[in-house]
Design goal:
Number of domains: 4
Number of helices: 22
Strand order of the largest sheet: 1-6-5-4-7-3-2-8-11
CATH architecture of the largest domain: 2-Layer Sandwich
Oligomer: single chain
Shape: elongated
Number of strands: 24
Distance between the termini: 86 Å
Strand content: 15-25%
Helix content: 25-40%
CATH topology of the largest domain: Heat Shock Protein 90
Bound molecules: adenosine-5'-triphosphate
Radius of gyration: 32 Å
Length: 629
């Protein structure tokens, strides 16, 4: 009795397949790279499995075999790796488990070139077979299973697949047969397959075997050989000396380890000797993966021990803020039976992590110092993640701070290009602080009333608009002995920069004089503000809100609330500009209703410029209209 079942692809896969076939067509030969990459991963996993189950090792050479049949118009890719069970085939080859898939698909534009890039970031893997094939058969047997428990999966890529249990007599592993589309005959030759393998898969650790090319005898007759030969270099690329690896090989290896179609921005390849001996080959990608901020995203480095693959996504080998780095670490000293749990609390791993972190930071510094344009692009992709290092990595905090780039009032654009060193180099005579403002957007920051006095005095202010910035500045009190000061905090003191700074006596006098108006407003805003004080920071605006120097900033409070955290509601201080016409109007008014309305209006305006949602927007509009009328 046949146990054949027909199933439907997940909707997302149908969509993805359709788009992929169209947008990657001009790059069709990558199908082989993807399938060979999967085969190599499967052999890696099988070799790892043998560590604990030596009985799985039957002494066969671990290899990938590629063959073709001109008459049947097929190409076959065979590996003797880990294989898959029936359920695993359904899970791996019928669904996309990645979170964010839908959002990703929504981003696609229909423009083949742009989409090809995005699809590349997403990773197409197995499905790329359908770029060249109109039918794909996959037969697989999981290592350790009896030969009658193999699974056959067949699909034409249009939306359904069939799956059934079958026999596979040649042992564990996966055999994939591509039935090529009509116009793909050019792939059916020794020459073209060999050249694709050499181009994309030369670095694969395992031999990729093909039947020997036919030879010709002295009469020119073709002698077909049944012998196999290895067509790739077949050694672990990272174990080779740097001088023996070409730039192209490094780039192709990156695509294999990262599942990214784009070229890497830079890499470091280095052998470390000392207490821990290991080799690292780590890459800085050029583009952020689409799920960089997804909390469920798997990240990390491939860990090998003495060239045996141990695990993917070993997240302990680098700190979280370098989670976009891809590559391989191959240790000489760790025990082969190392597990994720052991990695958690291993001194040896700590040593490797700290060594690799330093090297990666040097690599990023190198780009920052020597290629400003490239760094600017990378900062746009990864900046908010790198900044987390200031919070996470106490040891390298200064180095990470040096790498940060911000928008600034010194430029007329939202480009994040100003470093703290640039800022310090431009500081005014007598300036000893680094001033910044945090806000939700560049425009909100740039136009904030808190900046008025700084604009007037031509003092540069850094405009911090990434969500993580509030946390960053709460961990970075100073840089190069200059303290970082928010211009939105209470008690702003411009120190030597304030040429019109009143003496203590003048200040007292001013405060005494302002007492009635301050009282008036305070009473009108009872319960809404902690205090009402005069300020010299405003030029064009009547008032602004500030929090205590050591308290949480208003922006931070809002971010925490947005993140669903309970934040004790603190009352801000309202700072007022005595020179402003609205304040003068208040001073002169004796109509209590008008005093109440105008005070509230000034308070609400200050809230709006902070990006705060008003309690009573309708009331605000009414008050506003009545004043305009
Ligand atoms: N030759 C194979 N042997 C064993 N398992 C395989 C093989 N090919 C694919 N798989 C399984 O199917 C899964 C999906 O493969 P696919 O190529 O679609 O994606 P991927 O390699 O995980 O990632 P990406 O989509 O980024 O390339 C793999 O993760 C693996 O578990």
């Amino acid at each position: 009795m046949s146990n054949k079942q027909t199933m439907s692809f997940q909707t997302e896969i149908k969509q993805l397949l359709h788009l992929m076939i169209h947008s990657l067509y001009s790059n069709k030969e990558i199908f082989l790279r993807e399938l060979v990459s999967n085969a190599s991963d499967a052999i890696d996993k099988f070799r790892f499995e043998q560590i604990n189950k030596p009985e799985l090792n039957k002494g066969d050479e671990l290899a990938i075999t590629i063959s073709f049949d001109k008459d049947a118009k097929t190409i076959t890719i065979k590996d003797n790796g880990i294989g898959m069970t029936y359920d695993e085939v359904i899970q791996n080859i019928g669904t996309i488990a990645k979170s964010g898939t839908k959002e990703f698909l929504d981003k696609l534009s229909g423009d083949a070139k742009k989409d090809a890039n995005l699809i590349g970031q997403f990773g197409v893997g197995f499905y790329s077979a359908f770029i060249v094939a109109d039918k794909v058969t996959l037969v697989t047997l999981k290592a350790g299973e009896v030969t009658s428990k193999a699974t056959e999966w067949v699909s034409d890529g249009s939306g359904e697949f069939s799956i059934e249990t079958t026999d596979k007599l040649d042992g564990n592993g996966t055999t994939i047969t591509l039935h090529l589309k009509e116009d793909q005959d050019d792939l059916l030759s020794d020459w073209s397959l060999r050249s694709i393998i050499r181009k994309y898969s030369d670095h694969i650790n395992y031999p990729i075997k093909m039947q020997k090319m036919p030879e010709h005898d002295k009469d020119g007759k073709e002698i077909i050989s049944t012998e196999m030969e290895t067509v790739n270099k077949a050694n672990a690329l990272w174990t080779r000396s740097k001088n023996d690896v070409t730039e192209e090989e490094y780039k192709e290896f990156y695509k294999h380890v990262s599942h990214d179609f784009n070229e890497p921005a830079k890499w470091i390849h280095s052998r470390v000797e000392g207490a821990q001996e290991y080799t690292m080959l780590l890459y800085m990608p050029a583009k952020a993966p689409f799920d960089l901020y997804d909390a469920n995203r798997k990240y990390g480095i491939k860990l090998y021990i003495k060239r045996v693959f141990i695990m993917d996504d070993a997240e302990k080998l680098l700190p979280n803020y370098l989670r976009f780095i891809r590559g391989v670490i191959d240790s000489q000293d760790l025990p082969l039976n190392v597990s994720r749990e052991i990695l958690q609390s291993s001194k040896d791993i700590d040593a490797i992590r700290s060594g690799c972190t330093k090297k990666v930071l040097s690599m990023i510094e190198d780009i920052a110092n020597n290629d400003k344009d490239k760094y600017s692009e990378l900062w746009n992709e990864f900046g908010p993640v790198i900044k987390e290092g200031i919070i996470e990595d106490h040891t390298n905090k200064e180095r990470v701070a040096k790498l940060c780039r911000f928008a600034s009032t010194a430029n007329d654009s939202d480009a994040k290009t100003v470093s703290l060193d640039d800022y310090i180099a431009r500081m005014k005579d007598g300036q000893d602080k680094i001033y910044y403002i945090t806000a939700d957007s560049y425009n909100a920051a740039k136009n904030s009333p808190h900046l008025e006095i700084f604009k007037q005095k031509d003092i540069e202010v850094l405009l911090l608009t990434d969500r993580v910035d509030e946390w960053v500045v709460s961990h970075l009190f100073d840089y190069e002995k200059k303290s970082l000061v928010s211009v939105a905090k209470g008690g702003l003191d411009l120190g030597n920069l304030d040429d019109k700074k009143p003496t203590e006596e003048e200040k007292k006098e001013q405060e005494e004089k302002a007492k009635p108006i301050l009282e008036k407003i305070k009473t009108a805003l009872d319960g809404k503000v902690k205090e009402v004080v005069i300020t010299n920071r405003l030029v064009d605006s009547p008032a602004c809100l500030v929090t205590d120097g050591y308290g949480m900033s208003i922006h931070m409070e809002r971010l925490l609330r947005q993140a669903g955290q309970a934040v004790p509601s603190s009352q801000p201080t309202l700072e007022i500009n005595l020179e402003h016409r609205l304040i003068n109007k208040l001073e002169n008014s004796i109509d209590q209703n008008q005093i109440n309305d105008l005070s509230l209006l000034i308070f609400e305006q200050a809230q709006l410029t902070e990006g705060i949602q008003l309690d009573d927007p309708v009331g605000f509009v009414k008050r506003m209209n009545s004043f305009i009328a």
